[in-house]
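SEVERITY: medium
COMPONENT: batch folding queue
REPORTER: lab tech (J.R.)

DESCRIPTION
The queue accepted two submissions in a row. Attaching both inputs and their returned structure tokens so the on-call engineer can compare them side by side.

ATTACHMENT 1
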Amino acid sequence: MPTYLLDTNVVLRLLDRNDAAHNQCRLAVERLILRGDEPCLAPQVLTEFWVVATRPAHSNGFGWDVATARNAVEELGSRFLLLPESRELFDEWFRLVTTYSISGKRAHDARLAAFVSVHSLDAVLTLNPVDFSGLGIHVVQPASLVAREQ
């Protein structure tokens, strides 16, 4: 069964019903599940989710309190497979950032790409495919997944 890492931007849209991409992300994840694929999470995705969920709304966050964010993380952890991190993840991330001279915020994306590689996942489901370009992983956008399945 193919396994897809859900990028943070997809997870955020799954829980933000007011976001324009909510339905697209929800449909994409539902389609994965219906066809027998497995959406999964990395601890980093939940950490990044927490940051946005608890950041004030005026700073581009959800403005949630800790209890609300905790409930959301626990729900995500019960709905989707949460894969572990390892020393191998660090080694692969370090190889990517040094081989491709990655710096700044893109190092976070390289870490998710390393996660996909270390766990031999089939793809990352993301709204921002350019974030993973040149990192050797398969990238799928929710819109293309939904369009293919119609």
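ATTACHMENT 2
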Amino acid sequence: MKTKQHIAGWAIAAAALVISSAAHAGDIKGKVTAQGLRSPENIAVYIDAIPGKNFAPPAQHAAMDQAHLAFAPHVLVVLKGTTVDFTNEDPVGHNVYWPAINKNRKLAHNMGTGPQGQKKSFTFNDLGAVPLLCNVHPEMSGYIIVAPTPYFAVTDKQGNFVIKNVPAGAYTLAAWSEEAKPSSQAVKVGAGVTAVSVMVKR
């Protein structure tokens, strides 16, 4: 009887903890203003770190396709340790390579050239921007941003973004754009919606 009561008590405490955690999480809703850039679209925004927390990479792979002679999506943000599948959707061969990760040329890698329908995978364990290129089609370019937390978003055409279910606390919100200097600012998240304005400059 005591064992059943103990188990029931533990279950109630665990449920309360989950509910409490959910109640102390909020969304960051923001807008990026891009000064000197062609557009505020495709800017990566993410929580730079949460002290004392490490995040296991997702079991599900992310996808970066080559379609219509372009990388799709143009900017993909993933958590450190995520495996990304590169699939050629075009009826021509594509090569995928990156000359560096976070400007470190020692982390350059060439996935090789593959025909339509071929999928190749790579696990990204190094933080930072990964510029994607294709040797066959030099006009193609894309980016993978490897982030330290799972709290990230990419802006739409108007520069809007939403980062959901961020634990309550004070953090640094980082922004990355292929055309602008990296920027960061403090953000304090509570329950509900936290509104922020982000400025990036060329």
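NOTES FROM REPORTER
The mean pLDDT is 87.
No errors were logged for either attachment.
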